[in-house]
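**Discrete fold encoding**
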Amino acid sequence: MPTKIEKDHITGAETTGHEWDGIKELNNPLPKWWLYVFYVCVLFAVVWSVLYPAIPGFRSHTDGLLGYTQRGAVEKTLQEAADAQAQYRDQIAKLDIAAVKADPELNRFAQAGGRVLFAENCAPCHQSGGTGARGYPSLADDDWLWGGRLTDIEQTLRHGIRAPNDDETRQSQMPRFLADGMLQPVQIEAVAQHVRSLSGLDKANAEGAKLFAENCAACHGEDGKGNRELGAPNLADKIWLYGSSKQAVIETISYAHAGVMPAWGGRLDDATIKMLALYVHALGGGE
């Protein structure tokens, strides 16, 4: 015998016939449009799980009929970018660096790529834009330890400075005048004062000038303007790699510094090194 359909006396809605403690369940089915959307979503999820990696397992996951992975998509994008750049990079690798600079199209490509390469490989030491830091030379000024021509920069990049396991690396070594007993503390202080006076930071000092001529001029020159062949810095241009305070200069004279730059020739290809050299040269201090 069919169940009699009752209606709730408050809402007027039909009830399901279920009742608990005097509370009757209303018969309010979900809207059809909502159900249809739900069914479509379920169907979409099933199709997606079949086509794409979706279901985890103990060691891996389902591969999906399309074999798609995000890693594969990234690798494909990178390969497409490499293929698009290959024509330019091949030309840069074959030409000498001056010829690359003379070609407007190649030079634009090298500058754009060099900016990215610099951020990836050089900025941790030389800072963004090549502004440098204590112990790391600024590449955006006109002060160069080993020369600022394109070929000079390329050579430095390729073989580094005091880089181990590279016979063509740039080498220089300043004596440790105090540590090796070559000068006494009072003499080192006099030399430091003279060195600072070369750029107007201190008063002239006759004793310091005499000691400088005897011990330092052979590398830095009588006027303290340096020698690029030896990697001896200019001491008269107000540019200081390890600080200009008297204590900093005394420390340098006493114990010296021997910073190391990697030889990128064993890590980066020819095109990359030339692109970096062109970018550094264009930072503002190239010659």
In short: The mean pLDDT is 92. The two ends are 104 Å apart (CA to CA).
